[in-house]
Amino acid sequence: MKKQKLNQNWYFWKDGYENEKRRINLPHDAMIEEERVPDLENGNASGFYPGGKYNYVKSIYGEEAYKGKIIIAEFEGVYMNSTVLLNEKVIGGWVYGYTNFYVDLTEHLRIGEENELRVIVDNSMTPNSRWYSGSGIYRDVNLYVGNREHIVPDGIRVTTLSVDPAVIRVETETTADEGTEIVCEVFLDGKKIAEGCGADFQTEITEAKLWDAKEPNLYILKARLMKQDAVIDESEIRFGIRSLAWDAEKGFQVNGNTVKLKGGCIHHDNGPLGACSVYKAEYRRVKKLKELGYNAIRYSHNPAGKLFLDICDEVGMYVLDETFDQWKLPQTTYDYAKYFDAEWKKDVEALVKKDYSHPSVIMYCVGNEITDTGLPHGAIICQAIAGTFKSLDATRPTTIANNVLLSVMAKKMAEQKAAETAMSEEEKKEAEEKTVGSQDVNNVLTLLPKIMASITAENQEELLKDVFRHVDIVGYNYGELWYEKTHEMVPGRVMLSSETFPCKIGSNWKRVKESPYLVGDFMWTAWDYLGEAGVGLPFYGSAQAPFSKDYPCLTAGCGSVDLTGYVESQGYYTSIVFGTYKKPYIGVRPVDHAGEAYTVGKWRLTDAVNSWSWPGQEGRIADIEVYSIGAEVELLQDGISLGRKSLKECRAFYQAEYRPGKLEAISYDANGNELGRESLITAGESEKLTILPEDTSLKADGEDIAYIHIQITDDQGIVKMLKDRKLMVTVDGAATLRALASGNPETTEKFSDSSYTSYHGRLLAIVQSNGEKGTIKVTASAEGVETQTVELMAY
User: Fold this and answer.
1) What pTM value is reported for the model?
2) Residue 125 backbone class (left: φ over 0; alpha: ψ -120 to 50; beta: rest)
3) Which residues of 308-335 are buried (b: 16+ CB within 10 A; e: fewer)?
4) Which of 190, 307, 538, 770 could be a cystine partner for 607, CB 3.0 to 4.6 Å?
5) pLDDT band at 417 (very low <50, low <70, confident <90, very high)
6) DSSP 65-97
């Protein structure tokens, strides 16, 4: 079938506000446009953005060429509870906000007329998520047009049967009657290298180039549906040739080679773009994480979109694709648990159909921190979900990201409830399913280390063994205390550190490298995100802080990379632990808070920043952290050594009296040989705006975006991080200003405004093509500094 995007020229309005209808292009996030509500129920989960009910309408002309054809619309992601109408007739819809779905327009499309396609999105029942979900049609919409006999969308499956020799199996699903034939050709770099016929055939690929994260070689398969020597439909997909295997002795293997997963967890939002999934944003995130040394992403806690997986295929990034954050027991008042029984199977089926031919997807997760696991019905559900995955795709392992604390809580709460009231068996079952939810689970997580210490590997195994036996790889969230003992008890179990505190990444990665049965680590989190407000936010004046923070806190404040794409100290530390970043890194705790009691959320490594510019703080004692590979580091202040120190888990700590000048760190191996050096220099008195675009050109397609960094620096380009200002940004020519943002986790400012306050001397501008070709002028201005302009080109 012919596929085209259906993203342009929609009309949008919030329910009850049709008089404010406006034209938009998709993807679109309605939530990011809402006014934040300081006293919103469970508002810290969404960053204090409310939900709502929204209308999307597009006119589709019934072309003569459509007569006798099948017309299908695909929605790659709509959050949530969508209803699709064509000419006021309900023709489809979908509950879950993260799986793609198809709607057949054929029977109700009028030829020779304009047709109204309407999507009603109902995200008004909140809270329904533990993080920022977004609202509306936030991923692409596609239109498929083809003959009644056609290849079904997502109907081609390519399976690697072996890699030496390379043999693939190609299955093609069609609606064709007898008398048709399927002819397939395989291409590499534009050259045909194999072919085959039939709805299900095998073929060998000679001199195959395998796919893995280091060498992501991709092939193209083109399929033609033939009838009486005529092509009646055609389709193509990309695929990679790669095999997966896993056991406790050799670990996780890709193409026969053991791979340790250097993983990071991410949520689906793209910061100032909200939930909108656009190519440049998704590519930028995957590419930057790979440069930091990550080779795997856990898409938390919902299925990834098609675009994201396409990019992971291209860049070379392993993906753990996740299903749900709840089963029958809710995590929030109106979440997916309300629909789980009726919807889970078709969502799993949609996920597998989407993922099947993506080589980047290496594992399916049946659920994250599922409280049901502590109750008898949890094992039954786990068996059903894992079994469904295996029936649809036996080539990938299943896992579960289990938090034993929540399992134990569910069990104890059920026991307490049963003890309080004499109940029949039926009433007890009802109590389990309706009253043992995890409404305040995030607040409980602040007590995680203390409670976890009281749980043993033995009692955990007794509680969860019937759940764990249904998955191939058992994922433990914050479970580093139990790996060794569990391995002694269950030596054949393959384990995954599915979620880890940043402060544990050094010790945990050492454990992963040394333990074949432990296949990888996924740190929370690789990239900062909207919602779960302030879980990593530094808190000054007290050594204790709640799990999440009040308004105006906006982001979690806990990423290795902040909301704008700036790599924080935690990101460099992780990169050094992974062995990717080879130079030493210097982090300085805020000198303006020197000597204060403080804490950082457990989901943040440190509040240290890469700066030695602290005007007004002269004479105060600075706490300095140095990260590096090697055995030792030496820190010099203005050329005078502050001593050599041994590195423990790639870290060493110093103190020094702050004065303007230079810090220099030198790293050494065990034999005293220098490995690298890095320095920080205090910014000078001069002050200017420096504009640094990540790209100097963008496509004139109305969709492409460019990221532009605006910094407050001295004449040498050194950022002056205590000199924050309100910056005004204007865009002229062939683009518009899409968003402004900083890395500040606490702000009342809007991403859509034309001015925004810098944070630590930095601001990000995102500009978007308006569809025209030509020059783009981006101008930044602020009171007291000279206005600066940079030019880009749209082509």
Assistant:
1) 0.96
2) beta
3) bbbbbbebbbbbbbbbbbbbbbbbbebb
4) 538
5) confident
6) GGTT-EEEEEES-EES-EEEEETTEEEEEES-S
